[in-house]
């Protein structure tokens, strides 16, 4: 097996969890709770993004927490600069079902296009992110 194949398999074996509102996203599956949330906020697209472990290389908790804070500051600036767009985000965590790596703090962003989400993932050094459109299965998007 090569590293890329192992990484992609790991993404497919991860639960992308938001505690409030309570929902779990899995690559290749629809999430009815997420579809209802998208309807409530009147947007169609979403992304689940982390700033942890750029390039899928483990960093210390302290370094990852600092990166997460930078991601949150970036999202806050982004929202202020584009008040006409309905972007909202919720705290989340990417948790592997096999427990082979530590859960990663993340955010579920509503109202973000796949193009903008890919740019955001790349900005924070991510190999891939999870994206979707209302009514469709979540998909993995390489950055």
The beta-strand count equals 7
**Total of helices:** 4
Fraction of helical residues: 25-40%
Order of helices and strands: HEEHEHEEHEE
**Total number of domains:** 1
Approximate shape: globular
Question: What tags apply to this protein structure?
Answer:
single chain, 143 residues, alpha+beta, seven-stranded antiparallel beta sheet, 4 helices, 36% helix
Q: What's this model, at a glance?
A:
With 143 residues, the chain is an alpha+beta fold. It has four helices and seven strands, in the order αββαβαββαββ. The chain has one domain (3-142).
Summarize the SSE layout with pairings.
Elements: H1 3-12, E1 14-18, E2 23-25, H2 32-41, E3 45-50, H3 61-81, E4 88-96, E5 104-110, H4 114-123, E6 128-133, E7 139-142
Antiparallel strand pairs: 1-2, 1-4, 3-5, 3-6, 4-5, 6-7
Q: How would you describe the overall organization of this protein?
A:
It is a single chain. The chain is an alpha+beta fold and 143 residues long. The protein has one domain (3-142). 36% of the residues lie in helices and 28% in strands. The protein has 4 helices and 7 strands; from the N terminus they run H-E-E-H-E-H-E-E-H-E-E. Strand 4 and strand 5 form a beta hairpin. The longest helix has 21 residues, at 61-81. The model has no long low-confidence stretch (mean pLDDT 93).
């Amino acid at each position: 097996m090569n590293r890329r194949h192992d990484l992609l398999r790991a993404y497919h074996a991860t639960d992308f969890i938001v505690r409030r509102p309570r929902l779990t996203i899995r690559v290749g599956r629809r999430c009815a709770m997420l579809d209802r949330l998208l309807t409530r906020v009147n947007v169609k697209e979403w992304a689940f993004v982390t700033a942890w472990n750029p390039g899928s290389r483990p960093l210390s908790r302290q370094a990852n927490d600092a990166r997460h804070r930078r991601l949150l500051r970036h999202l806050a600036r982004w929202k202020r600069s584009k008040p006409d767009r309905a972007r909202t985000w919720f705290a989340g965590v990417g948790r592997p079902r096999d427990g082979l790596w530590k859960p990663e703090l993340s955010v579920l962003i509503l109202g973000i296009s796949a193009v903008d989400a890919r740019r955001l993932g790349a900005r924070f050094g991510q190999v891939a992110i999870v994206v979707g459109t209302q009514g469709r299965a979540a998909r993995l998007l390489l950055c």
